Amino acid sequence: MSVRQLARAVLLGIVAVLALAFQAPDVSAREGRQLAVAGAQPATQAPDTRTAVRAAHPPPPREAAAPEQTGAQGEDQFPVLLGSAAGVLLLVAGGAALVGWRLRRQTGGVRPAEMRQRYDHHDAVLHAVREGVLILGSDGRLLLANEEARRLLELPADAERRPVADLGLEPQLSALLASGRAATDEVLLAGDRLLAVNVRPTAPSGRPAGTVVTLRDTRELRALAGRAGVAQERLKLIYDAGLRIGATLDVGRTAEELAEVAVPRFADVVTVELLEPVLRGDEPTVGANAELQRMAVKGVPEETAIYRVGEVIRYVSGTPMATGLASGRPVLVGDLSASDAWRQQDPEGTQRVLDSGIRSLITTPLQARGVVLGLANYWRSGASGTFEEEDLAFAEELTARAAVAVDNARRYTREHTTAVTLQRSLLPQTLPEQSALAVAHRYLPAHAGVGGDWFDVIPLPGARVALVVGDVVGHGLHAAATMGRLRTAVHNFSALDLPPDELLSHLDELVTHIDTDEARAAGLGAGTGADPGTGGRGVLDGAGTWPVGREGDPEGVPGRTGITGATCLYAIYDPVTGRVTLATAGHPAPAVIGPTGSVSFPEVPVSPPLGLGGSVPVETAELTLSEGSRLVLYTDGLVENRDRDIATGLELLRTALAAGADRTPEETCTAVLDAMLPAHPSDDIALMVARTQLLDPSRVAEWEVPSDPAAVAPVRAACLRMLESWGLAAIDFTTELILSELITNAIRYGAQPIRVRLLYDRALICEVSDGTSASPHLRRAATTDEGGRGLFLVAQFAHRWGTRYTPGGKVIWTEQSLDGERPEPGPDATEDVLDQWDDVPAL
């Protein structure tokens, strides 16, 4: 029984009870009178006998009852009325409860107002969806059709409640709907449309089974799928742009990456131009005559473009490009052939572009952080369709991503240029003149950042030359500044003419002080993290090598905080003997190319890197090189990188060096870099090639001097004769004066062996050696002093002089110009000369 039927039954029951209640008194009176006329009858009398009696004796006319009798009858019937009313109320309450229970059961507890609201929502959705919906009964009649279904099937207004077969549908579609079978995306004809039909049976609880049908126009589906495909492809393009654009911090390469990403997925041709200051790392300003440089052309051969890569462009005011630069907004030109503003830039060039099939353009400013950096121009041919307004937003988003990468590259270029400028100012600008070595060098900073590699050529007394190559771990300004400090320190220690092992020991101590100062400045304290058993220094590992931090690791070594991390190789070459004395502090050993082209890597004692030496002594190695040999010094960036280990790099270096026996140092540097330089160096590379030269033995003269003042005159005379044979008579007087002073001091204050040596090189070099380590000091003697003026005279007449220590004593040396020029003597020079001759024994 339905709710409606139940409610109707309850109402009928109530009406019947009320009718009985109001008619009960009349019925009782009438029945009483009938019983009085007929007399008492047995209870078991048949109904037909009573009927017969009533028919034979009809009742007399009804008379009005007396008031007293009526009142008595009403009082007798009052309990009946109350009982009837109570029964009615109970019946009404029970019926209402039953109706409410059935309603709640059928609606799932939803209230009528909410039920109505849901109905309105479902009806709105049903008629608003872009999909046709049909509901069919089990008898094949159409129960419901939404607006989209009426449009797709062209249903008549009175279609509902009609059988499907009477709706005039295509036979196949009509048969499918009438069958009631399930279907999924079956494509059927409906007029001039192909519909994707889905059929699902449904059987609600307590109701006959039915069918729900959904319909969709396949043409609209294809159009929607096409738009979704385009949107998905553009999302993927944006994603790929994020991955590929800005992979390097190079401005030009970033522009090329933008062009490569956009062609052909968004445009047929892409050109990118950047403002000139961007290329230098400066912040650009857009003016009326702003100059742009084309950085990339993609999609056509560069020869067919109006402007080629590298050309400078000034866009005419009013052109789409100039408008985009000035406004900072993208500009769309849907039909280039109808754009006079675009043609005025270059009528001949623009005609070539139109002849090639290009028909549409979007020019978009490269803008980051409110600064316009350049332009990205997207071009389409007629075959690809023209750009639409909806393409502007995508072009702007794609260009904005590239603009951020270009701006990052610009800022990096500025910082990199600053660091490179600083580093190059700290590196030797020109090599000093010397005769011992023919030197060629190369320095290449890393693409990722400036490092701390350096090299040096330092002339030393006695025609010797020091070769230096070093590497500070890390990149950036800090590494460059540390390199400058170390290079200055090497020059200072070289001025003391220290042997390589002593020089590196002093340099190690300096780096240790630098580490300590930086640790204190950082609040870390000295020796933080170091091994207490080594006094804050490192120790050899099990492989016999000294661990240093990877390039870019500011800590230098594991377990140590604040290590500067530096390596250095220091070598001294003597052209008189052809001997090289060298020591290395954690640096790769040099390579030696013999005169015949043979390549070797000599064994050099392992020493700790700078700052980690501590109590570990630095050991030296000595090599004797034939004239014409080449000494190759380098940093680890040449032989080691991410793609190869150091063993492979050394083997490649050996192969590159052995390729040519008669190459010059310059040619050797070029060949090595061509063979070994990676595409994108991750570390600095310093390379130095020095070809040895020997001093002609005829330009070297040496004498043994006895410890006798009388020996001064013969040695001095022999020296003068040698100067005359060399054609240096112009400087014989000053040379005689210098030798007299130095030999006399050696005899008077020194010890055997005493030797005098003259070297005829770019300057005349006089050396007097003895067996003591006591060093003379220059001072100005008082008027009353009898001596002390000798070294003062030597300093006055020589261009340079100094002292160097040897394992067996010391050497006092002087250098004089070969053209006879000498420093202007002081006002007391003549008096000092006379006083000096008084101290020298007569000849």
UniProtKB/TrEMBL annotation:
<dbReference type="Pfam" id="PF07228">
    <property type="entry name" value="SpoIIE"/>
</dbReference>
<feature type="signal peptide">
    <location>
        <begin position="1"/>
        <end position="29"/>
    </location>
</feature>
<feature type="region of interest" description="Disordered">
    <location>
        <begin position="38"/>
        <end position="72"/>
    </location>
</feature>
<feature type="transmembrane region" description="Helical">
    <location>
        <begin position="80"/>
        <end position="101"/>
    </location>
</feature>
<keyword id="KW-0418">Kinase</keyword>
<dbReference type="GO" id="GO:0016791">
    <property type="term" value="F:phosphatase activity"/>
</dbReference>
<dbReference type="InterPro" id="IPR003594">
    <property type="entry name" value="HATPase_dom"/>
</dbReference>
<keyword id="KW-0732">Signal</keyword>
<dbReference type="Pfam" id="PF13185">
    <property type="entry name" value="GAF_2"/>
</dbReference>
<dbReference type="InterPro" id="IPR036457">
    <property type="entry name" value="PPM-type-like_dom_sf"/>
</dbReference>
<keyword id="KW-0472">Membrane</keyword>
<dbReference type="InterPro" id="IPR035965">
    <property type="entry name" value="PAS-like_dom_sf"/>
</dbReference>
<dbReference type="InterPro" id="IPR052016">
    <property type="entry name" value="Bact_Sigma-Reg"/>
</dbReference>
<keyword id="KW-1133">Transmembrane helix</keyword>
<dbReference type="InterPro" id="IPR003018">
    <property type="entry name" value="GAF"/>
</dbReference>
<dbReference type="GO" id="GO:0016301">
    <property type="term" value="F:kinase activity"/>
</dbReference>
<keyword id="KW-0378">Hydrolase</keyword>
<feature type="domain" description="PPM-type phosphatase">
    <location>
        <begin position="434"/>
        <end position="692"/>
    </location>
</feature>
<dbReference type="Pfam" id="PF13581">
    <property type="entry name" value="HATPase_c_2"/>
</dbReference>
<feature type="region of interest" description="Disordered">
    <location>
        <begin position="817"/>
        <end position="843"/>
    </location>
</feature>
<dbReference type="InterPro" id="IPR036890">
    <property type="entry name" value="HATPase_C_sf"/>
</dbReference>
<feature type="compositionally biased region" description="Acidic residues">
    <location>
        <begin position="829"/>
        <end position="843"/>
    </location>
</feature>
<feature type="domain" description="GAF">
    <location>
        <begin position="246"/>
        <end position="416"/>
    </location>
</feature>
<dbReference type="Pfam" id="PF08448">
    <property type="entry name" value="PAS_4"/>
</dbReference>
<protein>
    <submittedName>
        <fullName>Histidine kinase</fullName>
    </submittedName>
</protein>
<dbReference type="InterPro" id="IPR001932">
    <property type="entry name" value="PPM-type_phosphatase-like_dom"/>
</dbReference>
<dbReference type="InterPro" id="IPR013656">
    <property type="entry name" value="PAS_4"/>
</dbReference>
<keyword id="KW-0808">Transferase</keyword>
<keyword id="KW-0812">Transmembrane</keyword>
<dbReference type="InterPro" id="IPR029016">
    <property type="entry name" value="GAF-like_dom_sf"/>
</dbReference>
